[in-house]
Amino acid sequence: MATVNQQLYRPILTAVGSDCRRHVTTRFLPVPRRNVTTRLRPILSLEVGKEVASAPSTVNMEELVGFLYEDLPHLFDDQGIDKTAYDERVKFRDPITKHDTISGYLFNIAFLKNIFTPQFQLHWAKQTGPYEITTRWTMVMKFIPLPWKPELVFTGLSIMEVNPETNKFCSHLDLWDSIKNNDYFSLEGLVDVFKQLRIYKTPDLETPKYQILKRTANYEVRNYEPFIVVETIGDKLSGSSGFNNVAGYIFGKNSTMEKIPMTTPVFTQTTDTQLSSDVSVQIVIPSGKDLSSLPMPNEEKVNLKKLEGGFAAAVKFSGKPTEDVVQAKENELRSSLSKDGLRAKKGCMLARYNDPGRTWNFIMSQVLSFSSDSWLSSVLCDCLAFAEERSYHMA
């Protein structure tokens, strides 16, 4: 079971004056969240811990929340967002991008669309102050100009301020989960981008479907859909024993001699806390198949099994995944989860994206730890929790 030891905080915001450019303050009430650190900025500030009186709002914030649920999924498609919902002088900031007009904001969207082919997913939107709406999202992008087309993943929050005089959005501040310094211009943010451009080679084959809920500096939290595997007994997480048996099943060694398309990755899994016993080797069956329609294995030690998926934390790495490397990565992952108040199940799963006997430096591997459904609340609802008083500002 996942555990969360921190309190939950949600901001209550009060705007001083009707001009969106003036000072705005918030106090935080009990949601878990890591620190956000920045410098003092003069235009917009959200300060934690101050008691302030609530100001009456004439803006229909519920309607604007509903609008964002409908509009933001079109951020990168041909329809695009509705620019009439934004002030002409809207301020947009993320750790490496800065625009002060709606035209600049739209230019940035078009640039990302043409260079990165991004996929945007809105997890939720909610009112977090009289003139403030916060959203949580995931954006996955492929950098097309590079031959290996690396995948960049960003998750985080957008804090959107509403101008009470125009009923339009007048500022948009993005906070990334993967960095601590979310100020513009953040060198940490730039490094985070370049780190994701490194060379990883993965076969162009079907993989289990999952949704990335959160990407931190050290791991990703994913929600896997159910999938079917063919499995047998292995000797160790980094070993190749048993691979030929499960590979034989999809190559036609089954009751109907059916050849089943190859997928990726190859999983080795254990529920042993020492990662040294109870190891299974698994190959994923393509989606669209079900247990009742699949042929039976010819070998007694080979079985078909449906995995229910669920929440998992994953860490990526390259190079040969020896037993020592896998154990070190599993320890690092558990340590990072523990620091964030999360606890995974016993054991782990190694995902290898090529033949286990032919791993080389640029092939990606992953170590995964699964947990219970209670992770969802601690991952997605920790949007505005702070371990101590901090401020972040837009200028």
List the helices and strands and how they pair.
Elements: E1 10-15, E2 24-29, E3 44-47, H1 61-71, E4 86-94, E5 97-99, H2 102-116, E6 119-129, E7 132-142, E8 151-163, E9 168-176, H3 187-195, E10 210-215, E11 220-224, E12 227-233, H4 243-250, E13 266-270, E14 279-284, E15 303-307, E16 310-318, H5 323-339, E17 348-352, E18 364-370, H6 375-380, E19 391-394
Parallel strand pairs: 4-9
Antiparallel strand pairs: 1-2, 3-19, 4-5, 6-7, 7-8, 8-9, 10-11, 11-16, 12-14, 12-15, 13-14, 13-17, 16-18, 17-18
InterPro entries: DUF2358, Reg_factor_effector_dom_sf, SOUL_heme-bd
Organism: Arabidopsis thaliana (Mouse-ear cress)
GO biological process, one term: response to oxidative stress
Short synopsis of the structure:
InterPro entries: DUF2358 (IPR018790), Reg_factor_effector_dom_sf (IPR011256), SOUL_heme-bd (IPR006917). This protein has six helices and 19 strands. It is α+β, with helices and mostly antiparallel strands.
